[in-house]
Design brief:
The structure holds two protein chains of two kinds. By secondary structure, chain A is an alpha+beta fold. Chain A has helices at residues 2-19, 73-83, and strands spanning 23-35, 42-53, 58-64, 91-98, 110-122, 125-138, 141-151, 167-181. Helix content of chain A is 16%, strand content 51%. Chain A has an eight-stranded antiparallel barrel. Chain B is of the alpha/beta class. Chain B has a single domain (18-137), classed as Beta Barrel (OB fold (Dihydrolipoamide Acetyltransferase, E2P)). Chain B is 30% helix and 35% strand. Chain B has a five-stranded mixed beta barrel. In chain B, a hairpin with a 2-residue loop joins strand 2 and strand 3. Classes of the chains: A alpha+beta, B alpha/beta.
Chain lengths: 183, 139
């Protein structure tokens, strides 16, 4: 009887541990391009916080707006002060789920196409988004990436008339995180 | 006159952003003092020092992926992102546990605002952190 109870306890603990397994990273990358081709309007952030829970498919990331790096100081100032108002809205956050987790095996190396659905908050505006991406599992770590396009007006990001030829009405965004089990 | 105006416009339009590695720090703090400042009033600290070059000294918690993480207590760490060349300079001379002083452009803090839900990722919990970018060693 004691052995059965012990075995059940071990199984319960193993199951709990698996259920709580969270992969995370603080060195993810976000990149955007909002140019029309007339000028380089791209920015890169190398410190994106990402988290993924395979047991539920929950996926989250947080991007500090002031963490974006640009080639020009003027562009950086305009991005933070005029377009993104980063003092008022310091972070962009995504909270959602991988909706086809049945096709992803985080315990087996491989590249898995994923569908992601959730709420993306940019500039204080929350919008439902849906995108495709990939999860590449190698030796226990997961490289998750996705590319999608947003409409700036959806997030109340105003484009001043003087730069309307240079700044696109949409921004292409790429997110890439290499996640490992949180210590 | 037109040439001078064009030169000024060109200079402003192409001026590179401030980087932490190539400029002197305006403030140098120990990691625990930095945390205390953020606990005291993170909004005030953020508004004073965002996009400014600040120096932080402390012990290296982690070196990975062009980042140095400085420990600032059990639930606080400072993340400094480097370009690859500057990161190699760090890894040549330092390892986890060593004391280091870094400088970088302050991008803000996370986890100090108890009322903000968007500020935190609930899967990671209420871990406090601060970020510096374009970092370099403060020699």
């Amino acid at each position: 009887m004691k052995k059965i109870v012990s075995l059940l306890a071990v199984l319960f603990l193993l199951n709990t541990t698996w259920a709580q397994k969270i992969y995370s990273s603080k060195t993810g990358q976000a990149w955007f391009d909002a140019g029309t081709g007339m000028e380089d309007i791209t920015g890169t952030n190398k410190s994106v916080t990402c988290a993924f829970k395979p047991s539920t498919g929950d996926l989250q990331f947080l991007v500090k707006i002031k963490g974006f790096e640009f080639w020009s100081q003027l562009l950086q100032e305009h991005f933070n002060e005029n377009y993104m108002e980063s003092d008022k809205f310091p972070n962009s956050v995504f909270k959602g789920k991988v909706t086809n987790m049945e096709k992803v095996n985080v315990d087996k190396d491989g590249t898995y196409p994923v569908n992601v659905k959730g709420i993306l908050e940019i500039h204080g505006v929350k919008k439902d988004v849906e995108s495709n991406g990939t999860m590449k599992v190698v030796g226990g770590s997961i490289s998750a990436s996705s590319e999608f396009t947003i409409v700036l007006d959806d997030y109340k990001i105003a484009i001043p008339g003087v730069v309307k030829d240079k700044l696109s009405k949409t921004a292409k965004i790429k997110i890439n995180c290499t996640l490992s089990i949180a210590k | 006159m037109a040439a001078i105006a064009a030169s000024i416009i060109f200079y402003i339009a192409t001026k590179k952003p401030l980087t932490g590695s190539d400029n002197p720090a305006v403030l140098i703090l120990k990691a625990d003092a930095f945390k205390n400042e953020l606990v005291k009033n993170h909004k005030q600290f953020d508004s004073l020092y965002s996009n400014k070059n600040i120096g932080i000294s402390g012990s290296i918690k982690e070196l990975s992926n062009d980042h140095v993480f400085i420990a600032g207590g059990d639930d606080f760490s400072i993340s400094c992102s480097f370009d690859s060349a500057n990161f190699q300079n760090v890894t040549k001379s330092y390892k986890v546990g060593d004391s280091i002083t870094l400088k970088g452009i302050y991008s803000g803090s996370t986890g100090f605002d108890n009322q903000s839900s968007a500020d935190e990722l609930d899967m990671i919990g209420n871990e406090k952190s601060a970020e510096l970018k374009t970092c370099g060693l403060n020699r």
